[in-house]
Structure formats: structure tokens, C-alpha cells
């Protein structure tokens, strides 16, 4: 039983303003596995005051000082690698192997990449007699999700530190354990008091207080589009910058000349990964109409080979994060059946042999139309929808016919055709032929998938203001 009842404010572990606890549920067992404290606006006030005070000095540190700080954080992160992996398995159900090989390493890669970017990042440039300076924006409110808990924490905290900002972090109350360990990493690395502060709590209280606080200069939020809208509303009165990485319903276009079996297989596996709880998952697979039957056969095989069970058992995927998510997924699977999509495999209820835990059957629908609920709404579970198209123009039209625009995927053999299709897709990131990740590539969405970008030097810019100093250089 983990008891994480204090907050990290001004370089110290402190008691919350009110002694109210939140149960943390292990999604594999449905049992309480720990407690955190529920923060209040008073706790946010205290953290913001510490961050504002610390900004005066930290914003003036040199590039070299910040590099040295990030290197110390990297060392401490590596020391806590196993602790982080165990926490993520317990708090959100990631299988042990996935936590060790994907979840925690993602944060490690991002720290290393940020250090390298900071070494050469251009904070100043001259244009004629004018100096263009990039300066830290100030105190940042960072609100992170539960699906990639430590990765998303790193993607916000590290660029903010690199830019010279101070911050208040609110991790998800669904998966707070890894963030607590992260705070211990920051403390061990010697982050100056007040530069990094962390408060637990629920979004409508702590998240809203952060978003609306006049002492916070920008908010970076990752989560659902619905919650992102509320953050933006709360922030509007103080005219602060808001960056958002929100929902997705990403298309995966399998072109006629693609190497079909590996392309379809990779698409299904990508959706099943992390129990379908990735905002950029390629959940809408588009295949040529004459290849629908072949796509069904391949997708069924891959989905039925995806084992579900105890995250400590060696299963491919574990549970989804909580009861509400499980019930939402069940509702959407039922909608797919009721609206006439072909249920290829999976369906309603837990997988056979599992009577406890928020486990979902790996599910594939075929002959899906783009106006069906399962094509329009983000399911956030291990559910693939296969749609057909007659020609490439129709595939592009279907792909773009969504309120989201986070990611898109294309598989094919004709490089020129792939590039032409990529240029027409309304998405912030397009992956070609199952290409791997890129720790320097900007990540973020069009439309209701958000605004702003994370990762690489683009992630740095979100935490910087632009100042023009006219007449800086004499003629």
C-alpha cells in the first residue's frame, strides 16, 4: 500500500491544506493500492508563490547550468528506472515488460534528447540592428495524463526547465505514483527550491485552479478534448498561453501496393499496445474495398493472438485504467454492433477467464462506415475499425473526415504517391510504412486534437516568449 500524502512545494515535502485523501485503484485487481491527498486552490496558491519567487533567479541561469541540472536529473532517473516501471504497472496496468521496455524508456529518451537540443538551441539572433531574444515565459502549470504518465511528465517538465521556467505539476489522480517518484528524482538531483512543485488532486479543483491562476503564465495540458476545453475556458480570463495535446481518431491508410500482411498486422498491434490507451493510435484502418476480406483475416489473427491478463503474468496487454473507461469502451463496442459494423473478433465483456479487473477483449470491427459512432468517437481501448475505400482520393477524404487531427499513418510502395497522400492529410504527425519514433519530431494536433507542439526544439518554444530589442546593434 503506497501512502503519498504530502505535496512537493518549494523544495520540501509539505502537508496539504486539507487532510482529504483519494483512493488509488489497481485496475488489474480493482483493489485500493494506495492513497494520495486531494489538493485545493490553497495548495496551488502556495506552490505558485514558490514558483514565482524561484523564477527570479532560475530564469537567469546560464545554458551550461541548465544542462548540468538536466544531466543530474538523468542520472537520478536512471537510478529509479525499476521503481518507475513497477509504479506504472501498479497504477495504470501496463504489463511489466511494456513498462520496462516502452513506458519508462520513453522518458529516458526524452531527457537525453532535450539535453542535446539545449546544447545548441538558439536563444538569441540578430536581424539587422534588432536582437530577437527567446526568454522563459514564467511560471508554468503542467497537467499530465495517466496513459503515458512518466513520459508525459518528462515531456513537459524537462523542456520547461531547459527554457528557464519554474512550474507547478498536477499529475493524473488515476496514475500518481510515478509522478511522486519523479518528484523524488527532482529533489535528489538538486533542483533549486521552488523551481519544481507538485500537487496531487482532481482536475475540477486543482486543474481548474492552475488554469485560472493569475500567477501562472502558461498551461500545458494533455488529456481529453472535453477536459482541454475546460482548461482553455478557465485560462481565458488571464489571457495566458495554453498548449494542448488532446484526443485523436487517427486514420491508417493501407494503399493498394502496400506489403499488405505486415502493414495490417502492424496497424492492429499498434492499436492493441498499451491496451489501446494512446491518443495517436491508428484506430481507423482504411483498406481498398477489394482487399477487405484479406484485411479481416489478418486483423483477426493478430487480435486473437493478443493475450490479455494480469500485468505481471507476461500477457500482451493489461487492463484499461479504471471502471469508467471500461464502461465507456463497452458502450462503444455495443454501438458498433448495433449500428451494423461486422464484429470480426472480441466484443462485449471481459476476456474469458477474467472475472475481475478492467480488462477488455481485443476487438476488431470491419465494414465500418465513417459516420458510425466507432469511427467518430475516441474509444481509447483495444478496438480497431476497418473501413474500405474505392480510390486514393476517397481514402484521403475519409481520413480527413474527423474532428481530430493528431496523427495519421500510410503504408505503400510508391514513394511519390505516399508523399502526395501525406501532404493532403490534416494531421500533426504522419508516419510512413510503420516508421519508428523520432525524439526530435514535433508532436501535436490539428483541429480538436489541440494546439502547440511537444518534443524536440518545438517543445522548447512553447515555454519561451519572443522579445525584439530594436537598435541593439548600432549601424
Structure report:
Helix 5 links the parallel strand 8 and strand 9. The protein has helices at 41-58, 63-79, 81-92, 96-120, 149-163, 177-188, 203-212, 225-236, 260-272, 292-304, 323-338, 373-376, 392-400, 415-424, 456-461; strands at residues 2-4, 7-9, 12-14, 21-26, 31-37, 124-127, 130-136, 139-143, 166-170, 196-198, 218-222, 241-245, 251-254, 284-288, 342-345, 363-366, 383-389, 407-411, 429-432, 450-451, 464-469. The protein is 40% helix and 20% strand. The radius of gyration is 23 Å and the shape is globular. The longest helix has 25 residues, at 96-120. A seven-stranded mixed beta sheet has the order 15-16-17-14-13-18-19, sandwiched between helices. The chain has a six-stranded mixed beta sheet with strand order 10-9-8-11-12-20, sandwiched between helices. A three-stranded mixed beta sheet has the order 1-5-4, covered by helices on one side. The model has no long low-confidence stretch (mean pLDDT 97). Helix 3 packs antiparallel against helix 6 (177-188). The chain is α/β, with parallel strands linked by helices and 475 residues long.
What are the SSEs and their pairings?
Elements: E1 2-4, E2 7-9, E3 12-14, E4 21-26, E5 31-37, H1 41-58, H2 63-79, H3 81-92, H4 96-120, E6 124-127, E7 130-136, E8 139-143, H5 149-163, E9 166-170, H6 177-188, E10 196-198, H7 203-212, E11 218-222, H8 225-236, E12 241-245, E13 251-254, H9 260-272, E14 284-288, H10 292-304, H11 323-338, E15 342-345, E16 363-366, H12 373-376, E17 383-389, H13 392-400, E18 407-411, H14 415-424, E19 429-432, E20 450-451, H15 456-461, E21 464-469
Parallel strand pairs: 1-5, 8-9, 8-11, 9-10, 11-12, 13-14, 13-18, 14-17, 16-17, 18-19
Antiparallel strand pairs: 2-3, 4-5, 6-7, 7-21, 12-20, 15-16
Amino acid at each position: 500500500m503506497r501512502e503519498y500524502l504530502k505535496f512537493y512545494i518549494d523544495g520540501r515535502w509539505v502537508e496539504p491544506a486539507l487532510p482529504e485523501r483519494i483512493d488509488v485503484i489497481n485496475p488489474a485487481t480493482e483493489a485500493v493500492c494506495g492513497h494520495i491527498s486531494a489538493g485545493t486552490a490553497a495548495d496551488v496558491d502556495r506552490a505558485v508563490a514558490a514558483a514565482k519567487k524561484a523564477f527570479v533567479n532560475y530564469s537567469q541561469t546560464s545554458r551550461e547550468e541548465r544542462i548540468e541540472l538536466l544531466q543530474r536529473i538523468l542520472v537520478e532517473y536512471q537510478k529509479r528506472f525499476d521503481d518507475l516501471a513497477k509504479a506504472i504497472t501498479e497504477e495504470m496496468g501496463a504489463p511489466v515488460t511494456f513498462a520496462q521496455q516502452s513506458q519508462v524508456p520513453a522518458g529516458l529518451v526524452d531527457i537525453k534528447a532535450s539535453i542535446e537540443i539545449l546544447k545548441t538551441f538558439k536563444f538569441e539572433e540578430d536581424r539587422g540592428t534588432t536582437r530577437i531574444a527567446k526568454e522563459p515565459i514564467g511560471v508554468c502549470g503542467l497537467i499530465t495524463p495517466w496513459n503515458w504518465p512518466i513520459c508525459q511528465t518528462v515531456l513537459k517538465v524537462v523542456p520547461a526547465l531547459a527554457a528557464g521556467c519554474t512550474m507547478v505539476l498536477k499529475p493524473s489522480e488515476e496514475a500518481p505514483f510515478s509522478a511522486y517518484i519523479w518528484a523524488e528524482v527532482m529533489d535528489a538531483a538538486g533542483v533549486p527550491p521552488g523551481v519544481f512543485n507538485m500537487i496531487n488532486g482532481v482536475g475540477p479543483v486543482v486543474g481548474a485552479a492552475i488554469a485560472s491562476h493569475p500567477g501562472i503564465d502558461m498551461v500545458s495540458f494533455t488529456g481529453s478534448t472535453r477536459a482541454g476545453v475546460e482548461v482553455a475556458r478557465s485560462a481565458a480570463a488571464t489571457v495566458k498561453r495554453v498548449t494542448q495535446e488532446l484526443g485523436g481518431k487517427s486514420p491508417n491508410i493501407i494503399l493498394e501496393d502496400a506489403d499488405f500482411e505486415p502493414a495490417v498486422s502492424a496497424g492492429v498491434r499498434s492499436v492493441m499496445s498499451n491496451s489501446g490507451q494512446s491518443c495517436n493510435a491508428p484506430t481507423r484502418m482504411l483498406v481498398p474495398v477489394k482487399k477487405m476480406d484479406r484485411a479481416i483475416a489478418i486483423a483477426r489473427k493478430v487480435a486473437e493472438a493478443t493475450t490479455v491478463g494480469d500485468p505481471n503474468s507476461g500477457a500482451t496487454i493489461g487492463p484499461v485504467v479504471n471502471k469508467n473507461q471500461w464502461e465507456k469502451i463497452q458502450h462503444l463496442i455495443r454501438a458498433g454492433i448495433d449500428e451494423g459494423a461486422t464484429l470480426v473478433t472480441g466484443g462485449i465483456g471481459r476476456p474469458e477467464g477474467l472475472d475481475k479487473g478492467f480488462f477488455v477483449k481485443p476487438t476488431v470491427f470491419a465494414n465500418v462506415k465513417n459516420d458510425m459512432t466507432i469511427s467518430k468517437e475516441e474509444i481509447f481501448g483495444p478496438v480497431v475499425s476497418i473501413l474500405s475505400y474505392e480510390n486514393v482520393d476517397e481514402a484521403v477524404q475519409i481520413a480527413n473526415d474527423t474532428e481530430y487531427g493528431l496523427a495519421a499513418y500510410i503504408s505503400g510502395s510508391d514513394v511519390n504517391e505516399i508523399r502526395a497522400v501525406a501532404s493532403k492529410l490534416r494531421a500533426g504527425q504522419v508516419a510512413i510504412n510503420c516508421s519508428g519514433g523520432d525524439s526530435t519530431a514535433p508532436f501535436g494536433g490539428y483541429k480538436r486534437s489541440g494546439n502547440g507542439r511537444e518534443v524536440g526544439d518545438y517543445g522548447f518554444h512553447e515555454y519561451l516568449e519572443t522579445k525584439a530589442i530594436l537598435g541593439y546593434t548600432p549601424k
